[in-house]
Amino acid sequence: MLKKIVSNITYFVVMLGLGYVIYAYFLIPNLALNRLNEANSTRATQTLSTQTFFAAKLPNENGVLQDLSQFKGKVVVLNFWATWCPPCREEMPELSELQAEYKNKNVAVIGIAIDELNLVKEFSESTPVGYPLLADENEGMSLADQLGNDKGVLPYTVIINSDGTVAKTYFGRITKPLLVSTLSTLLPP
Q1: In the chain, where do the E strands start and end?
Q2: Which segments within 16-91 are labelled E, that is strand?
Q3: Using one digit for the tens of pLDDT, what is the confidence trace for 83-105?
Q4: Which fold has domain 42-186?
């Protein structure tokens, strides 16, 4: 009899735990990523260097090398993505809108694909994107890691202030209102 009671209690506890996991990770969108963003953001703004980023040269979707130092002095919204990543593709229209609205305010939106160049070329031919797309599977992941993506999460977005410091980092899908809110603290009124 005692075995049956213990068995039923164990079953109940396991089901309760499973229910919480399903609730927390599947029913509350991005709860785990939001916690990562909160914990990572303070650390990121204090310890990350953009020196390697601004020293890099990466190919655009057409294979033409782009010197990333051309973005020095601008507020940079740097988005690491991949063609195979659904949340990455979902946020691209909002990033394109942001680029269109802020291009005359010293803001540059840049997408670095952690992907093969030919796949990025195919993607850009079928999907209009209003900001520069660069691609380098290995160098891109190394840059993302150096800029705080120690989890290997895509998409991953870094906001670099015009003075070259990392202002904010975001794991997972971002939204235009979230970026506008961050930019409002970095740009003159």
Answers
A1: 57-59, 65-67, 75-81, 107-113, 133-135, 156-160, 166-171
A2: 57-59, 65-67, 75-81
A3: 999 999 999 999 999 999 999 99
A4: Glutaredoxin (3.40.30)
Cα distance between residue 109 and residue 133, in whole Å: 9
User: What is the predicted pLDDT for the residue at 37?
Assistant: 53
For the residues of 86-132, what is the DSSP string, one character each?
HHHHHHHHHHHHHHHHHGGGTEEEEEEESS-HHHHHHHHHHS--SS-
pTM for the model stands at: 0.76
Q: Band the pLDDT of 164: cuts 50, 70, 90.
A: very high
d(CA 180, CA 184): 6
- Residues in Cβ contact with 32 at an 8 Å cutoff, skipping those fewer than 6 apart: 24, 25
Is residue 111 within 8 Å of residue 81, measured between CB atoms? Answer: yes
Angle at 133 between CA 55 and CA 110, to 5 degrees: 60
Residue-level pLDDT at 13: 65
Provide the 3-class DSSP secondary structure of residue 51: helix
CA neighbor of 136 nearest in space, from 74, 70, 63, 38: 63
**Residue 47 and residue 55: Cα distance in Å, rounded?**
18
